[in-house]
Specification:
Blueprint (H helix, E strand, L loop, with lengths): L1 H30 L5 E2 L19 E2 L5 E6 L7 E8 L6 E9 L5 E7 L1 H4 L6 H5 L12 H12 L1 H16 L8 E6 L2
Parallel strand pairs: 1-7
Antiparallel strand pairs: 2-3, 3-4, 4-5, 5-6, 6-7
């Protein structure tokens, strides 16, 4: 009887240790984002932006395009997040992030997971069909610059979005902050 009880206690302890380890592993993966999938660098001659500003959200009511600029990373002056949204701006879809170096030159493109931007993520084919909708009627140099830049980088943006969907489809545990990253040289 005493031997059975010891065996049963031993088994219960092993199960508790295994379940605790699995729970800890899951929490670590959920708390710490996974590393981005880095695509081979694109060698392009791209224009610079002399003075990116943090003006809050810039929204075009005709196209539903909007963007904002902020900085919170090392090795960049800041980055733009570009979106397409419904005209009432209630639902938005992140197109691509554009990192800018200290001289105003674009240095990388990236995509994010939906939790980062609070977006409603739509699949690559639908978003790819709307990328030309990123247009602005205002005369702001920044708006015109981003519109031109996205037009010139359309193949790279489409590849990033397609790869993003492939990665997130196979996503098991953990979260991505940046899903795909494309250095520009």
């Amino acid at each position: 009887m005493n031997g059975r009880r010891k065996a049963k206690d031993f088994l219960i302890r092993r199960v508790i240790i295994i379940l605790s380890s699995l729970a800890l592993f899951t929490l670590i993966l959920l708390r710490f984002p996974r590393a981005p999938h880095i695509l081979p660098p694109a060698h392009l001659d791209l224009p610079t932006l002399s003075n990116p500003k943090s003006e809050g959200d810039i929204f075009d009511p005709k196209s539903g395009a909007f963007y904002f600029y902020h900085s919170h990373r090392e090795n960049e002056q800041g980055h733009f997040h570009t979106f397409l949204s419904d005209l009432d701006k209630s639902v938005h879809h992140h197109l691509v992030g554009i990192s800018i170096d200290i001289k105003g030159k674009p240095i990388a493109l990236f995509t994010t997971d939906d939790w980062v931007t609070g977006e409603e993520m739509i699949p690559y084919p639908q978003l790819a069909g709307r990328i030309d909708d990123f247009a602005f009627t205002d005369e702001s140099p920044t708006s015109q610059y981003l519109q031109t830049l996205l037009s010139r980088l359309k193949p790279q943006v489409l590849q990033l979005l397609k790869t993003r969907d492939e990665i997130l489809t196979n996503h098991k545990l953990g979260r991505y902050e940046i899903v795909t990253y494309l250095p520009l040289q």
